[in-house]
Amino acid sequence: xxxxxxxxxxxxxxxxxxxxxxxxxxxxxxxxxxxxxxxxxxxxxxxxxxxxxxxxxxxxxxxxxxxxxxxxxxxxxxxxxxxxxxxxxxxxxxxxxxxxxxxxxxxxxxxxxxxxxxxxxxxxxxxxxxxxxxxxxxxxxxxxxxxxxxxxxxxxxxxxxxxxxxxxxxxxxxxxxxxxxxxxxxxxxxxxxxxxxxxxxxxxxxxxxxxxxxxxxxxxxxxxxxxxxxxxxxxxxxxxxxxxxxxxxxxxxxxxxxxxxxxxxxxxxxxxxxxxxxxxxxxxxxxxxxxxxxxxxxxxxxxxxxxxxxxxxxxxxxxxxxxx
Length: 324
Known about the structure:
Elements: H1 12-17, H2 34-45, H3 65-75, H4 97-106, H5 125-140, H6 168-178, E1 183-184, E2 190-191, H7 200-213, E3 219-220, E4 229-236, E5 241-244, H8 247-258, E6 261-262, E7 276-282, E8 287-293, E9 296-297, E10 300-301, H9 313-317
Antiparallel strand pairs: 1-2, 3-6, 4-5, 4-7, 7-8, 8-9, 9-10
């Protein structure tokens, strides 16, 4: 598998940049974590993730082993397996039966034992990463290099030794190539939590990052609703500031930001050329900051085939003098 030199940069600022209100969030009432909204919307639109009940996605619910193989089976296009599965606890009429047979045939799983799959057991973070890693290997071969130019590695997590030996290649790959992260405790320790159950929203986010960063399918970075923004302060580096309050100008600015899609993450070198900051004030009072360069948004870059000078200086300067 050919690896790009572009990778997700694991840092708190980027994590915050992903937690944004969106204009097309899932309709389900319980999808409250904005960091998951875009991946949940994508999974719904693609038919990969279905609800757990009427108007419920349950993104904060634990994913089960049956759910995990079903999501990956749908992502793969629901291919038909050529043979049946060997598990006594997977009924032929179960919604996940075809997915289990495919996962076994493809080499994603061997089950919990030779005869049991344990479909209703929660699936851990390291178990799901292993399924996803094996899918990557099946499609592209073993990654030649993991986390190229990525400043964060699995060794940066205090609990990295808790990763099971069988899952170590997958977790190393997920941290280095897919921006898999955990949490920071009160002592400032970064925890990967490999044996914790993965949540449905987390599973969907990691799959979306795989789809973008490994399969190269463009992903939107932001999706703002213009009616949810009260003003935008645009600043040229450390220089001139302009405040946009005209709804038409706010919509014009956000239209370009919402159109930005990426397939990679650039580990930034020392800044050069021009750059602008945009402080976006939401109706909730929250202020979110973006950094714009010609073809970059918060250090994400457009792929080479994209329009040149997406955030050109000429376009950015066109907002100056338009305030009300």
